[in-house]
TrEMBL record:
Pfam families: RRXRR (PF14239). InterPro entries: HNH_nuc, RNA-guided_IscB-like, RRXRR_dom. It comes from Ligilactobacillus equi DSM 15833 = JCM 10991. Residues 88-103 have a biased composition (Basic and acidic residues). Residues 88-129 are annotated as: Disordered. Signal peptide: none annotated. Residues 104-128 have a biased composition (Basic residues). Residues 9-182 form the RRXRR domain. This is Paclitaxel taxanoid biosynthesis susceptibility protein ts1.
Amino acid sequence: MPQKKVEYIYVVDSKGEPVMPTSRLGMVRRWLKSGQAIWYGNSRKTIQFVRPITTNTQELTLGVDAGFHLGLSVVSVDNQREYYASESVRDSKREKEKLEHRRDLRRGRRNRLRHRKKRFKNRKRQKKSLAPSVQHLLDFTIREIKRLYEFLPISKLVVEVAPFDNQKLANPNIKPWEYTQGRMHGFKSVKDYLLARDGYRDALDGKVYPASQLRVHHLVQRKDGGTNQPDNLVLLSDVNHNQANHVDGTLAKLAAERQTDLNTNYRGAYFMSVLAKRLPTYFANYIQTQGYITANLRTLYGIEKSHRNDAFIIAGGTDTCLRTSNIYSRTKVANNNRVLQKFYDARYIDSRDGKIKPGKKLSSGRTKRSRELDYKNQRIYRQEKVTKGRVSIRRNHYQLRPHDIVLNTKTNRIETVRSVVNRGKSVVFQTGKSTKPTNVRCLHHINGLREEKM
């Protein structure tokens, strides 16, 4: 028989200090209706009392399962109750493209300034600075932990974190002097190492090419979690490293064939080492635990493996604890779409199979105008043009964004925004219905974090 789960509403007093949450949802509705309490900030699950209140807080423990997927759980060990559980993730799949778009737009603005002052001092990186992607993930983890202190009276913090030796993970028998001499020791660049490793051969056709006609290609792209390690890199000639092979899946098949040769990705271990070193600067007092302890306790209590369940064990939860139904999935998304101009490619009928395909797929394959190579010309298979290519430019900033929670004053129903269309003149809901923005009152902005109840 499944264990009963309790739903809670979080409470803060008139001064903004968090107190114990309540499961008396009927009383919450009466407090809101009578004006004794209001919704707190941008939240629809936390209330704030307007009048003074007296309450006794219990000792709550926050358990953190750190990593790329962040598990959080708040447990009261005294009364064996769980009050909060969530899994937070930062979607970095398209982060590379977004950064490139931002860079292009910024360069365009700077090029339009005819007398821009030189700014070289602001390009100097600070000492002990991290890579932007690692720093962003670290900031995201710290913000998610500190957020819970705003509406829960947490008195103890327990984090599962430990530093790792990445080189020892790759080579358990590594000698001390080998730490400074990796596989690329003695080579000036990564390409020189790949040329010596592959013997100037193309990874697709196996032919030998001059070094000037070979390009370094990532089997797993950086945006998909790939690294710059040599095991994730191959050499492709200018003939095979073209747009057609990227689109039709030829290079994806090459990555799948060589997937067994790829070494383990140690990016997660590196981040855990960074977090273990930087965590004391954000939290003065916290308890550190190890993964094997969490795994043994989870097996003992018969709880299935997940990030929020690991956080529940870290916080001191047991198989006799009363679990909560306040389980949330939080995903970091972009606050704004910086790409104001979008290009929609023309679509043609492919003469080989009669299917409709974009012009990008049925291209000539030419990537360089300075030299003529044996490109695979797919343009000859274009037949009738089905749709024309077009450019769309967004000129206004819309206040409502996807996944915002709004009140439709026309129907008096709470809806979720899917998109804003018709140049901001219409709001489309997840149900497919639409209305004017004047008929909508925003209740909750996602503010770059999409939260859904699991």
